[in-house]
Amino acid sequence: MRVLGIDPGSETLGWGVIEGSGLKYSPVDFGTVKSSPRDAFSKRLLKISDDIEEVIAKFQPDVLSIEEAFYANNVKVALKLGQVRGVVLLTGEKAKMKIAEYSPRLIKQTVVGYGNAQKHQVQEMVRILLKLKTVPEPHDAADALASAICYFHHAGVQDRIQNARLKSKS
User: Does the annotation mark 67 as catalytic?
Assistant: First the structure.
């Protein structure tokens, strides 16, 4: 199974692809989609959509794992982030991918063991878990990989719960 993790951002969106099953996984590739803040926001959204479509076409992931929206002090920032998430979710749906959404706190808790972990802590744990030689740069890509790792950890739990429910009904 391949999972595409996304760290949404309107200027820098991180993405990372991991493959494996259960708690055994390995990195495939990661990177960012960079948009110019000078471009109209609609053009930035189009670039995000086009670039994520290319990533999906190239790596053929089965699942899209993305950070849920979080509360921001700046309403404009929160709205823009929501629009970026919407574009990514739509792109994933068009590609017929399974979609998983996790809060930033749960992703950090899963990867680092602490829900308020700092960026450098997430980067280092992603490096360790994926057996990378260096920390993934920039942090947006590391956050995207962390989102994909979170899917592997939580999807297995959900599958076991569902299988237990099915067995108890038989």
Answer: yes
Nearest Cα neighbor of 116 from 70, 154, 85 is 70
Active site residue 143: no
* pTM, entire model: 0.90
Q: What is the pLDDT of residues 60-108, one digit of tens each?
A: 999 999 998 766 678 888 899 999 999 999 999 999 999 999 999 999 9
Q: Using an 8 Å Cβ cutoff, are 32 and 15 in contact?
A: yes
- What are the chain's domains? 2-169 (3.30.420.10)
What does the buried/exposed string (b/e) look like for 132-141 if buried means 16 or more CB atoms within 10 Å of the residue's CB? Answer: beebbebbbb
Among candidate residues 67, 101, 137, 159, the one labeled active-site is 67
